[in-house]
Specification:
The protein has about 300 residues and is of the alpha+beta class. The protein has helices spanning about 15-25, 30-35, 95-110, 120-130, 145-155, 160-170, 195, 235-250, 265-270; strands at about 5-10, 50-55, 55-70, 75-85, 115-120, 130-135, 135-145, 190, 205-210, 210-220, 220-230, 255-260, 275, 280-285. The protein has 9 helices and 14 strands. The strands form 2 sheets. Strands 1, 2, 3, 4, 5, 6, 8 and 14 form an 8-stranded mixed beta sheet that branches. The longest helix is centred in the N-terminal third of the chain and has 15 residues, at about 95-110.
Amino acid sequence: MENIRIEYLQEKHLDNLVQFYKLVFNSIVPPSYFRIKYGLEVENMPIYATVIYLDDKMVGFHGAIEQEFKLEKTIKLVQTCDFILLEAYRGKGLFKELYSGTLAKAKALNVDLFYGIHSVQSYKSCQRLGWEDEIGFSRFHIQGISPFISKLVRKVLPNLQRKRLEKALKPYLIQGEIDFIKNANYYEHSYTATFFEMKLFSQHYWVMIKNIVLCIKLESYASVGYIRIEKGSNIEEMLSVLKGILKRSLIYDLVFHIQENAFEAQKIEQFIKREPSFLVSAHKLNPEAPDFVKVKLNFMDMDIF
């Protein structure tokens, strides 16, 4: 296809990207969302995200973010995030063009592994590129009030749920820095200051309830992106407290997304039915990198949390 050009994401692309998202998802996202999420304001942050233009029209976008995981050594991963092409341009090889730009930079910067926590569409796209299935996520739901009332509250009083949630969580908020205790058997995210800087597009609440550390985010529902069960914890009581918080906050649903084989998933399953969640796949760039089965993921590692 003639007159195609691929560029790494820059500030000059953001207005086009805002309009592109509105066209594809019928959703208005501010430029700051992309600026923060993809590290455009972070000093020395490699930009792996690519945009593709046909003449002067943006027709595709591939979002990707660099992350570091540690065990006995540090490995460099790139998480593939958004894979979007306008429908009229699908099936024309443009997807591979987008991916090739990210892949070239990843190889140049000695990235060890690509991975994705997928939507259905991004999973299919990565399967066509030869990515391998890995251990996915399970989800566990707690319900507060009826979905109808919760939706009505959001429509009529859009800020009320957040105000009530913040009030309900206040006694449990963690003050100061979070101590991320590492598992001796898995590579885990190093959670640097840069990681949290690139999460500032959304509000997160770090709490400890019954000796269980949680990171909670509120959108149309609440979700848990991080859970650590500490000594002396009481999971049943923690779930009861969360259910009460949902009711007081007029929120219908809270969902835990936890990697299927995680200790935390096994513990939560004793009280809540396990359901399938996000698929995960990966592609090894460095032959000497550890197999992805040695990587432990938390839901907050995902770009959308």
